[in-house]
Amino acid sequence: MKTESNNTDSGHIPAGGAIDATRMDLANRLFFRLYQCANMLHKTGTRAVEEEGLTTQQWAVLGALSRPQAGDGMTVNELARYLMVSRQNLSGLIGRMERDGHLASAPDGQDRRARRITMTPSGRRVWTVLAQPKIEAYYARALEGFSVDDMAHAIHYLLKLLDNMARLDTQGR
């Protein structure tokens, strides 16, 4: 039977969350690097698509709505859950994107209180014709030196971290 100290020695943080100095240092470094990556994604990603009048947040919304699973659009709640943002932050963004002609909203067919968000033909053109080539070039440059295995492993560990953080989020409510 594993004890907490055995569990820590094997490289896993025990359920109680105790963490030794080495793991604390690595955790600090990891979260700081994630913070830096998020900031650089916002800065350099926005620069990659700004000629099309987009920001990284708008890029994320168009990307979410362009997925095959979102063929009929998404409600504001579904979009907020998928992007892991608040409805309040998303509402302002959706309003701006509607004004720019990229999105349309209408009452949801199943829940008249909910709004269903879809890409307009203009939004789809901006996404597929104008933004996609720039996003692909951005990905190529940002992921330079990454093998397919590197990317798969990074996704695996980021999803594991995201699951843990989502669990923390639901516990905090």
UniProtKB/TrEMBL annotation:
Biological processes per GO annotation: response to stress
Coiled coil region boundaries: none
Keyword line: DNA-binding, Transcription, Transcription regulation
A Pfam family it matches: MarR_2
Keyword Transcription regulation: yes
Entry protein name: MarR family transcriptional regulator
GO MF term set: DNA binding; DNA-binding transcription factor activity
PROSITE patterns per record: HTH_MARR_1, HTH_MARR_2
Record-annotated HTH marR-type domain positions: 27-163
Keyword Transcription regulation set for record: yes
InterPro entries with a match to the protein in the record: HTH_MarR-typ, MarR/SlyA-like, Tscrpt_reg_MarR-type_CS, WH-like_DNA-bd_sf, WH_DNA-bd_sf
Organism, as annotated: Zeimonas arvi
